[in-house]
């Protein structure tokens, strides 16, 4: 299954990935931070929280680096590339989560135990890490492609995972809200109908 996935990736996405160089990752980090902050402001206009969550996500890069190294990332020869990858994953995975839930220990504990509601922030959080993990697979394949260079596929996987899961979470959250609203309106209509029946009964 994974083979067919990466075969499709090669045939469809390779022309774009050829232009996705390490220099692109380096130059793109400030853009990603700015975009993440603006995205939070669109969701909830709170400039202080949006900027603070971005800063905190960048400051948590060493923790993300430790996790990346534990999963096989380079610590000596390509340390600067590991730091760059960790920074990207930290911003796209942690920034929306911190903006939504802050640094509350209970929220983080529930996140690690998979007991938080599956909203866009939490699913984006999980998707970034799962995507980065799956993105490491093409690196070891003997395809001799420039985009297989560490850590391009890891970062691309994190972006894809976060985007897809975050979008699903947003759609699911909206659907749940619509279902709750419909149930509330239905209950209100039923209550109103009941009151009208009782009033009519008294008149009779």
Automatic annotation (TrEMBL):
Membrane association type = Multi-pass membrane protein
User: What Gene Ontology terms for biological process does this UniProt record contain?
Assistant: GPI anchor biosynthetic process
The signal peptide annotation in the UniProt record is: none
| Compartment annotation | Endoplasmic reticulum membrane
> Record's Gene Ontology CC terms?
endoplasmic reticulum membrane
Per UniProt, which keywords does this protein have?
Answer: Endoplasmic reticulum, GPI-anchor biosynthesis, Membrane, Transmembrane, Transmembrane helix
Q: Where primarily located?
A: endoplasmic reticulum
Membrane-spanning parts: 49-73, 79-101, 121-140, 152-171
Pfam families, per this entry?
A: PIG-F
Cross-referenced InterPro entries: GPI_biosynthesis_protein_Pig-F (IPR009580)
Instruction: Write out the pathway annotation from the protein's UniProt entry.
Output: Glycolipid biosynthesis; glycosylphosphatidylinositol-anchor biosynthesis
* Family (UniProt): Belongs to the PIGF family.
How is this protein named in the record? Answer: Glycosylphosphatidylinositol anchor biosynthesis protein 11
């Amino acid at each position: 299954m994974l083979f067919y996935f990466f075969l499709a990736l090669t045939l469809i996405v390779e022309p774009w990935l050829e232009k996705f160089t390490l220099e692109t990752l380096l130059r793109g980090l400030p853009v990603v931070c700015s975009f993440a902050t603006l995205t939070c402001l669109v969701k909830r206009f709170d400039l202080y929280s949006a900027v603070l969550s971005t800063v905190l996500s960048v400051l948590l890069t060493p923790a993300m680096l430790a996790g990346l190294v534990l999963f096989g990332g380079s610590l000596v020869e390509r340390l600067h590339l590991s730091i760059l990858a960790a920074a990207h994953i930290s911003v796209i995975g942690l920034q929306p989560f911190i903006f939504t839930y802050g640094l509350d220990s209970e929220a983080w504990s529930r996140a690690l135990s998979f007991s938080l509601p599956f909203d866009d922030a939490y699913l984006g959080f999980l998707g970034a890490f799962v995507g980065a993990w799956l993105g490491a697979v093409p690196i070891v394949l003997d395809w001799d492609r420039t985009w297989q260079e560490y850590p391009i596929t890891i970062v691309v996987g994190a972006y894809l995972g976060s985007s897809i899961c975050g979008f699903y979470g947003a759609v699911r959250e909206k659907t749940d809200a619509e279902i709750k609203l419909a149930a509330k309106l239905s209950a209100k209509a039923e209550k109103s109908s009941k009151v009208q029946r009782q009033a009519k009964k008294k008149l009779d």
